[in-house]
Amino acid sequence: MKERLGERIRRMRTERKLGLRETATKVGISPTYLSRIETMDEKTPPAEDVIQKLATLLNDDFDELMQLAGRVPQDVEKVIKGDPSMPAFLRSAKEQKLSGDDLMQLAGRVPQDVEKVIKGDPSMPAFLRSAKEQKLSGDDLMKLIAKKKGKK
After folding, report:
1. What Cα–Cα distance (Å) separates residue 121 from each residue in 70, 99, 110, 115, 117?
2. For the segment 123-152, what is each residue's pLDDT rounded down to a tens digit?
3. Where are the domains of the chain?
4. Distance between CA atoms of 48 and 60, rounded to whole angstroms?
5. Which of 108, 118, 106, 111 is CA-nearest to residue 146?
6. How far, in Å, CA of 66 to CA of 30, rounded?
7. CATH class for the region spanning 5-69
């Protein structure tokens, strides 16, 4: 079974020998709130800034924690909302069962470290950031997929 956000945070915290109160203080949240996150008693996932602080403190992958929280990072959301062809591209990638890593390779990049697609693949946020950095539109990405399809 896939590890849940609270389980992951607790595991990473205990591996680093950090106490609950110490971790909460360093992140800027109450120990009670952190406990509720770890025990999955908190029904609303933490805000992006809290997840970012936890990822930094625990030396964990921010994108993976966001995925476990069921959240899409704001910078990735802006990429999707800012390009009208991006939702169609993501749907096409999902239909073709292409992962974020596959798409990174298609875009000519090696991975550095619509919503279901992003939440379902921890490498997707990195791919979308890379596409944005390269100024690739959803249409450009669709052409890359079509090219790959033609080679099969």
Report:
1. 11, 7, 16, 10, 6
2. 777 777 787 788 877 777 777 777 766 665
3. 5-69, 74-151
4. 14
5. 106
6. 20
7. mainly alpha
